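Re: the multi-chain job from yesterday

Posting the exact lines I submitted so nobody has to dig through the queue logs.
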Amino acid sequence: MSAYAGRTRSQIRWEARLWVAQRASAMVLALCVLVHLATIVFAVRGGLSAGEILSRTRGNGAWLAFYVLFIAAVAIHAPIGLRTIFAEWLGWRGRSLDIAAALFAVLIAAAGLRTVLGLYA
Amino acid sequence: MQRYEVPAAPSQTILDLVTYIQRALDPTLSYRFACRVGMCGSCAMTVNGRPRWTCRTHVAKVAGEGEVTIEPLKNMPVVKDLTVDMREFFDKWARARGAFVPSEDAARDFAVVPPSSPERVEADAAIECIGCGVCYAACDVVAWNPDYLGPAALNRAWTLVNDLRDDGQPERLLAVAGDAGCHACHSHESCRTYCPKSLNPTASIAGLKRATARAALRGEL
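And the result, C-alpha cells for all chains:
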C-alpha cells in the first residue's frame, strides 16, 4: 500500500476535482431547479397546451441557453453522485465504475439535449 | 449476546456494570479501560446502539426498563467481547499525516502564534481530541468505505494544516484528499453528535475540503 491509501497522486487529484465539479454543478442546479419550477408554475396558469409551449420555446435563445446549462449541470452532477453511491453501497469501484459513470453522463447529456433541441428547433 | 443481572447502585456507570460482571459473574469478560474518569478515552463501547465513553455514562440515564445493551465499538474488528482492535484506526492517523513535521531550518526564529489568529482558532477548536474512536465507530462512511481515514484522523490533520510551524503541508493535503480522505465525507455529522468532547470533526473535514479543493484548482495537489 502506498502512502495515500493505495491511491496515486493523479487519482487523488482526479477525485478532488470531481468533488469540486459536483459542488459547482450543485450550485448551478440549485438555481436552475428554482427557475425551472417557478417557470412551470408560472407557465401553466390558466391552462397550457403543446402549442403554447412550442410558441414560447421555438427560436428562444435565452430558453435554449438556460436549459443547455441545466442539462450540463445534471450531466456532471448525477453521475458523480451515482459513482459514490455505487462505490459505497455496492462496493463497485475502479475503472469499470468510472466508465459506467461517464457513459451515464453522456446518456443524460444526449437525452437532455435531444429534448431541448426538439423544443427549440 | 450474554445476559447478566447486576445490582443497581447510586451513580453507577456503564463501566461499573462491566467491571461488576467481570469481577462477580464472568471473569473471562474482556474490556478495555484505564482512567475511569473521562480522560484517557479507552473505555468506549456501544451502549444501547450508540458509541459512548462507558465511564461517563450513568446507567440511570440510559437503562430504560432496567435493561441496557453493551456491545463493542462498531467499525473496528472485535478482539474479544468488548475489546476492539484499534490498529487500523490509529494507522489512519499516520496515513493522514497526523504527526507534526518540524521545519528543517534550524536557524529559523521562534514562530509567533497569536491565540486569536484565525488559524489558531481553527486548530484550538479541534485540538482536544483524545483518540477514543467514538466518532470513527459512529461514522457511516467508515462503514461503507473501509479506506476512509475517518473523522478523528482528518480532524487531527486539520489542526496541523492550521499550524504555521508545520512543514508537512503539501504532502498532508494530498494525504487527506480524495475518496479515502475528506472528499468522501457526507457531512452526516454523527461524529459531531457522539463526540464525548463535543468537538466537531465535520467542520474540520469541511475545512480540509476547502483547503484541498483550492490546492486542486491551483494545480498544487
